[in-house]
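Lab notebook, entry 221. We have the chain sequence and a SMILES string for pyridoxal-5'-phosphate, and the next step in the workflow is to get a structural model of the bound complex before anyone spends time on docking refinements. Request logged below.

Task: model protein plus pyridoxal-5'-phosphate, output structure tokens.
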Amino acid sequence: MSDIVQRLKAAQDAVARAAVDMGRQARDVTLIAVSKTMPEEAILQALEAGHRVFGENYVQEAKAKWPALKERFPDAEVHMIGPLQSNKVREAVALFDAIHSLDRDSLAKELAREIARAARAPTLFVQVNTGEEPQKGGVMPGEVDGFLETCRIHHGLAIEGLMCIPPAEEPPSPHFALLAKIAARHKLRGLSMGMSADYEAAIQLGATHVRIGSAIFGPRG
Ligand SMILES: *Cc1c(COP(=O)(O)O)cnc(C)c1O
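Result returned:
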């Protein structure tokens, strides 16, 4: 078994164990293998080992790698987890099965327009800037209620859940708990939270999607 496949299996086992420990089913938590910056050969190892859900951060990179891979593995899913520019929405709706970074009205408007035009609707997560960091994407916690309402009522978008990236220098759990609280208030099922260093804590606080990169593919160059 290659290092990537070995680490993938270990992560799959750890995710399943964390879910079961919380009285949930293993299948209630989706492991998104974050393959940004990784070459096709690395992704192929995970695909050939049976993994099907991947995350990418950049539209251009995903466009270069994934159409060929999806031809070979038609049931593979690719999730956009990085910031999305409004002028990349057409490509993003064509490429991605889910978008985790919906965070502003102009983007919601473009997505709604393109989803109607293309008759293809990726699963949508609203990103919340739980740490209120100025340089980071995401809707401020105090503005989530209004933004969700705008998405739903004004743009007719179905929102699956919320996503966050806690500040690097803080303990992540309070951020996961805040995200879970906001989601519960809106009866949103999806919670995209937890990365290589903290996905078990995220699952304890209700994560439905964990985004794991370096713990599977190794450090990014
Ligand atoms: C890169 C990235 C990840 C994966 O990070 P690791 O620490 O390598 O697991 C998860 N989520 C987002 C939004 C990312 O950009």
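Notes for the group: The mean pLDDT is 97. Worth checking against the assay data. The chain has one domain: 3-217.
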